[in-house]
Amino acid sequence: MTTTLHSFDTAIDLANNGIGQYTGQTNPEYANMVGPFGGVTAAAIIRAIERHPDRIGEPVALTVNYLAPVTDGSFDITVRAARTNRTNQHWTAEVAQDHGLTTTATAVFGVRRDAWSDTEVTMPTVPDPESPTHTTLPGPVPWMRNYDMHYVDGAVPTEPAESSSSTTTLWVRQRPARALDFAALSALSDVFYPRVFLRRGRMLPAGTISLTTYFHVDGTELARQGTDYVLASAHAQRFARGYFDQTAQIWGRDATLLATSHQIVYYKD
Amino acid sequence: MTTTLHSFDTAIDLANNGIGQYTGQTNPEYANMVGPFGGVTAAAIIRAIERHPDRIGEPVALTVNYLAPVTDGSFDITVRAARTNRTNQHWTAEVAQDHGLTTTATAVFGVRRDAWSDTEVTMPTVPDPESPTHTTLPGPVPWMRNYDMHYVDGAVPTEPAESSSSTTTLWVRQRPARALDFAALSALSDVFYPRVFLRRGRMLPAGTISLTTYFHVDGTELARQGTDYVLASAHAQRFARGYFDQTAQIWGRDATLLATSHQIVYYKD
């Protein structure tokens, strides 16, 4: 019997070159319009920190800045524990290639404790992912083929019609199915096509500049999601002369708010 | 005639020690429970980047990570242009004191261009800041005295009563009045007391770990706000075993969405 690595695990597979130094290889299956899917770069950074021998706790926050496209081939990730506190740890990370820095990041890892807890926002009411009313559209770029995407609102526009809403809501899981972990959740936080496509009813030049994700569960709670679909919903608040923001929620089917995520996106129109 | 520097400008006043190296002094007027108000540290970082000779454009995004309290006295800010693209520039920043790193940050500066634009979210409908129905409560910590805060919803709890909503909305401006700039707007993005106080109806240990702000205006649009009040509104999405998130909007009185901001906060309950 042979086991084959999931394409996502191949894409974020890292070789150790020293403490906090890792080398990965871009995977063409996760290619975006230019360079790889930003979510897979975020995932590789989380994976690099997870593998650092000094790491304590689990992801609480991640900010990834996309400086330049990662080009096909190998990339180096350097991660550094900037400060270790009693219950949390601050990290900085950089991704570099021969041509220079492509990505900077900061992350907070932490230990969760018993404390009063509450989810204040409510999960959108939508049909379940198995409902035949859903549509799964093939994505326009390679990385999208690694996800089962069942749009319940705001699918990728297929005809030139403007929309007054930038909201997209979809059930999504990795294809083939793979148990949800922090690396996968980090990638899912960037699973939305650019909101400006939806508003304008067409594709145009756009790319994430900075992505921030807050994690609301620990590894045990995350593992409970198994390989099931999660519900991902995103909208923009303002499109302002070349930059728009996006704010997103990722829910488990059991109504657990797994992560909230925000990004600022460059666009040209 | 003598002119006195506004206390905010004193708090973020920086001496140059070399290219990209600055030294500031904490100002007791901006003290928080432990260390200075996080907003003033964010503002000092924006100011440091603004003063760098290589800087192009204006703030688009800022993420500030609070590693450890800044102690009273001098602090060093180091900023570095990690990458300069055609229309944007990526920065990294660190704040250090004798005892080590206190703060890391990343920022994106950019140039805005003519492009299709739209504000999709709507400003909360509230009475104007001059309305006599508003209450201005003295803040429990020194930095709050530097702001006129007129709460229209979710004021600092004065009696032990839990709330089912974490939403706070207030009109706020600097005291004494000072024209709004990016440094001041960066500070305002952290002007909210911890959401968990409102939900629990009491103060408890809490502190911002990481703050991300997206700026939606250029300097000319920002200057139009003058010294007027802005409307700031924030709520939490989830409180999860020691960490909660906060998402916020800052509006000009003329319904311009100036900034959206997000943070993850440690709490103990």
UniProtKB/TrEMBL annotation, chains A, B:
<protein>
    <submittedName>
        <fullName>Thioesterase family protein</fullName>
    </submittedName>
</protein>
<dbReference type="InterPro" id="IPR029069">
    <property type="entry name" value="HotDog_dom_sf"/>
</dbReference>
<dbReference type="Pfam" id="PF20789">
    <property type="entry name" value="4HBT_3C"/>
</dbReference>
<dbReference type="Pfam" id="PF13622">
    <property type="entry name" value="4HBT_3"/>
</dbReference>
<dbReference type="InterPro" id="IPR042171">
    <property type="entry name" value="Acyl-CoA_hotdog"/>
</dbReference>
<feature type="domain" description="Acyl-CoA thioesterase-like C-terminal">
    <location>
        <begin position="129"/>
        <end position="266"/>
    </location>
</feature>
<dbReference type="InterPro" id="IPR049449">
    <property type="entry name" value="TesB_ACOT8-like_N"/>
</dbReference>
<dbReference type="InterPro" id="IPR049450">
    <property type="entry name" value="ACOT8-like_C"/>
</dbReference>
<dbReference type="InterPro" id="IPR052389">
    <property type="entry name" value="Sec_Metab_Biosynth-Assoc"/>
</dbReference>
<feature type="domain" description="Acyl-CoA thioesterase-like N-terminal HotDog">
    <location>
        <begin position="28"/>
        <end position="110"/>
    </location>
</feature>
